[in-house]
Write a structure and sequence with these properties.
CATH superfamily: HUPs
Number of helices: 6
Helix content: 40-55%
Shape: globular
Strand content: 15-25%
Low-confidence stretches: 119-133, 168-177
CATH class: Alpha Beta
Structural class: alpha/beta
Distance between the termini: 16 Å
CATH topology: Rossmann fold
Strand order of the largest sheet: 3-2-1-4-5
Length: 177
Amino acid sequence: MVNADNGTILVAIDGSTNSLMAAGVGARLARLLNVHLGLIYVLDVPALSFWAGIETRMKEDIRRQAEATLTEISGKIARICEVVPEFYIVEGMPEEEILRVVKEDPQVQMVVAGRRGVASEKKSQLRLRRVSGHLGAKLSELLPVPVLLVPPDVPESHICSAMSEFRSTPSGGRDNR
């Protein structure tokens, strides 16, 4: 297993297929560079303060789902890629929270993100995606470290094989050992 104190590659995870491919690229880079791998999941929690009980339950459900996603991804990466990721689960705007983590943790040397996230996977018109902007573009402007954007069609040779199964089944599926 990799046990490095040389820095951290931070991968933004949002549950989209492209973010899972980014995790595969980040794991491969961490292994090659002998650095830590961090997985950050920014919770998108809608404000429902007028329904006090529902907001609390929604936050708990969203956090549980994020923890389950990160646990599954990290287990596969640790087992197959021999890199043990650490988790960051935060709540807020992705670009703000990723910037905060990068500024607070001087070990972060690079941020890896999918070029398309959950929001762009849901949008059907290219024009809407251009108008709304991409997290990667925002991160590249804000962050003091390099940002690597992973395209959805990244070649298999660039990712940790633990994540290749997510190409066809975004929620998991068979176990590629």
